[in-house]
Design brief:
8 helices, mainly alpha
């Protein structure tokens, strides 16, 4: 039973490789890989049991992360922004917000504080990104990151996407490393 399945899969891969070469010739900028074709087909069916395995594997770290997130999310926006070290000129309100939470148009309040030619550095971006991830309250972020990392194609690890993914991974580890409580 397994041998015919393996034989069929190997034939499909051979056909994909031939098709990939033809596509690369016709569409110079399009990169087709077996993973790029199979992920949309297989992942919808495999994701629930696969994610369950990843969640079980990362259960202890995810639980510690979730406990820290619950503590941090009890804080007001001002307290959390200050704790994470976000530069006050990026806060969507002067020093004290008019409402307890940020509204949907908060980016419009930040724009006047930042010049049009402002160069964003990771020192400015990381605390803001950390704030967004904390407020998003993603319960099994560690499991999600682990799953994506295992399924990600190597060419995506470099460049802008690689930097974004690395930033997300660091955002996960930061709450686990901070040992002092948020007051």
């Amino acid at each position: 039973m397994i041998k015919p399945l393996v034989k069929q899969l190997s034939q499909i891969f051979k056909q994909l490789c031939v098709w990939e070469c033809q596509v690369k010739v016709v569409f110079d900028s399009l990169v087709v890989s077996p993973a790029g074709i199979f992920h949309p087909i297989l992942l919808p069916r495999l994701y629930p049991p696969l994610f369950t395995l990843y969640a079980l594997h990362n259960e202890k770290a995810d639980e510690h992360y979730w406990e820290r997130l619950l503590k941090w999310n009890k804080q007001s926006d001002v307290a959390l922004l200050a704790f994470l070290g976000v530069n006050p000129k990026f806060w969507p309100f002067p020093s004290a917000p008019s409402s307890p939470d940020l509204n949907q148009n908060s980016h419009k309040a930040v724009e006047p504080n930042v010049a049009a030619n402002f160069l964003w550095t990771m020192d400015d971006l990381f605390p803001l990104f950390q704030y967004v991830v904390v407020r998003a309250r993603i319960r099994h972020l560690g499991s999600e990151i682990h799953l994506v990392q295992d399924l990600m194609e190597p060419h995506l690890e470099n460049g802008e996407l690689g930097i974004m993914f690395t930033t997300l991974k660091v955002t996960l580890t930061y709450p686990l490393l901070v040992s002092y409580p948020l007051v």
